[in-house]
Design brief:
This protein has eight helices and no strands. Helix 2 crosses helix 3, helix 6 crosses helix 8 and helix 7 crosses helix 8. The protein is elongated and about 55 Å long. GO terms for molecular function: DNA binding; sigma factor activity.
Length: 180
């Protein structure tokens, strides 16, 4: 059965088709959910909530654009709704923000460590970092998604970058001291 037929069957509330859709996309969407969650268990909860929303709204999908993109957007929005309800963002004075680029030696840390360090960031920093750096959202879009100011998104991004730089430098220093 092709994807179009699977979508059509899901629109008809076919539970077998819903199960097949879940099996087809759950691992990809779990990866998305994990980026926006503070724990594995929370990512699982977000994924479950996302699929509930997907099945409720699938009749609204008009077969235009990427279906996978539509699924990803619902998954991200589901995770962001949880954070908006928890109000994990503090309001920052926009004038106090210094938007600096942080130069990090590409050989300083493996991608696995970098992903681990991103996951360890406090929620408010990790969300903004992921949306801006990994998913390409603008500060204005992030502000709208998270119900915060653009100044807060810029501040949280700068702080996320600074924390990552500190973790990477500490990692690099640890490697250098081990080689002595």
């Amino acid at each position: 059965m092709g994807l179009d037929q699977l979508i059509h069957n899901c629109k008809s509330n076919d539970t077998k088709a819903q199960s097949d859709l879940y099996k087809l996309f759950s691992s990809k969407l779990f990866s998305v959910s994990l980026k926006y969650s503070s724990s594995y268990a929370e990512a699982e909860d977000n994924l479950q909530d996302a699929f509930i929303t997907i099945f409720k709204k699938i009749k609204q999908y008009k077969n235009k654009g990427s279906f996978e993109g539509w699924l990803k957007r619902i998954t991200i929005n589901t995770a962001l709704q949880r954070y908006r309800s928890q109000k994990v963002f503090e309001i920052i004075n926009e004038e106090a923000i210094v938007d600096e680029e942080i130069d990090i030696d590409d050989d300083a840390v493996s991608i696995d460590y970098l992903l681990q360090y991103i996951q360890e960031l406090p929620d408010r920093y990790r969300l903004v970092f992921n949306l801006y750096v990994l998913d390409g959202y603008s500060h204005k879009e992030i502000a709208e998604l998270l119900s915060i100011t653009t100044g807060t998104t810029k501040s949280n991004l700068a702080r996320a970058r600074q924390l990552l730089k500190e973790k990477i430098l500490a990692h690099k220093m640890g490697l250098n001291s081990q080689s002595l």
